[in-house]
Design a protein that fits this description.
Chain lengths: 230, 134
């Protein structure tokens, strides 16, 4: 009984911190204040202050975690709604998402080798351009850590979206199609919401690319991991 | 009534995720079970085996609270204090440079393919007009 109450308390703590931080973000709308980031630090602060180890926090956390599987499956819904759009631009989207996926994974693997990061760390950040729930599952399957995978995903998402305007300027990418595909397949959901600032077309391209990249990366990821770390 | 529908629909999504995991274990695949579930659901929706009304509210709800679902895992970074060290900085640099390259290269290639597809279309139309007039 006590254990169940404890788990419930941890779930409530997580939800409360998250919505508090979501309110803060809605008020200031500054890229560094995204709720995942701020509520994570708030919860870590509380856990450290009350000497609660991560393992006991996860007694409650695992129940929230359990919803990640169905949440990934739920991505089929927006993909289905945009199936006509996907069909029309099939070759363009699939081809370029594959290019983005391969470039993204090989380049991050090469740099982490060059910087002498450990293999388990490198494998964790390999799926950095994939939307979080999928990246966690991919990293886990490759022998990396899911928590570490999120760190990589967050950096790719937040900084990708922040720097995108300068990158597009530098590389001379002007078309909304190119911008949408690049943002969706390199910076997943955060990038897609950035693409929404450009145009409706860029946003659709972004969200379709994000989902396709998740699927493609979970297929290509093991191959690249085997080639470079095998 | 609506919360109940959402719960039931999440149950449906759970079943797809579970079937995906079963398939993954049965064939010893490295692809996550949830991705297999996604593909299965997408296929079922396209083939009208599963009507979209069976999952739309549950899926919409889960996707709207998606970032909340990551929090317990992100709190897990408290187990990795090294992130605040030199090694953490290198990890940050590796991800950042790779992200910049990915955005630049895929943006350029998408733009290039889009333009060449348009050009091809225009060329075809010109040819058509040419053959019509002759």
């Amino acid at each position: 009984m006590q254990q169940a109450l404890y788990a419930l308390l941890m779930i409530l703590l997580t939800v409360a911190c998250f919505f508090l931080m979501a309110k803060l973000y809605a008020r200031f709308a500054f890229a560094f204040l995204i709720p995942v980031l701020t509520s994570t630090f708030l919860i870590i602060g509380i856990l450290v202050a009350f000497h609660i180890p991560y393992e006991s926090y996860m007694e409650g956390g695992k129940w929230i975690n359990a919803l990640l599987g169905p949440a990934v499956v739920a991505l089929a819904f927006p993909l289905y709604r945009q199936r006509m759009f996907l069909k029309k631009h099939m070759f363009l989207i699939v081809g370029n998402v594959a290019i983005a996926g391969v470039v993204g994974m090989i380049s991050v693997a090469v740099f982490s080798k060059w910087f002498h990061l450990s293999d388990s760390l490198s494998l964790s950040i390999l799926p950095k351009s994939v939307t979080t729930p999928v990246a966690m599952a991919v990293a886990d399957g490759l022998g990396g850590s899911a928590s570490m995978a999120i760190v990589g995903v967050m950096i790719a998402g937040i900084f990708g979206a922040m720097l995108a305007p300068y990158i597009f300027h530098l590389f001379g990418v002007k078309s909304p199609v190119g911008r949408g595909i690049a943002l969706g397949s390199a910076s997943h959901a955060v990038g897609t919401s950035k693409a929404a600032e450009y145009s409706e077309l860029a946003f659709s391209m972004g969200s379709v690319s994000m989902t396709l990249n998740a699927i493609l990366s979970s297929l290509i990821g093991p191959v690249i991991a085997w080639l470079l770390f095998g | 009534m609506k919360p109940l529908i959402i719960c039931l629909q999440i149950g449906v999504l759970f079943i797809f995720s579970y079937i995906g995991t079963l398939i993954q274990h049965f064939f010893h695949l490295i692809i996550p079970g949830s991705i297999i579930g996604l593909l299965l659901l997408f296929l079922c929706l396209c083939l009208k085996v599963v009507p979209v009304q069976l999952i739309d509210q549950g899926a919409g709800f889960l996707l709207s609270i998606l970032t909340l679902l990551f929090v317990p895992m992100t709190v897990g970074i408290m187990k990795y204090p090294f992130l605040l060290s030199w090694k953490g900085l290198l990890l940050f640099a590796a991800v950042l440079i790779s992200t910049i390259l990915t955005i630049g290269i895929s943006g350029l290639s998408s733009q290039f393919f889009e333009k060449s597809a348009e050009n091809r279309k225009e060329a075809q139309e010109c040819n058509k007009r040419y053959t019509h007039s002759s």
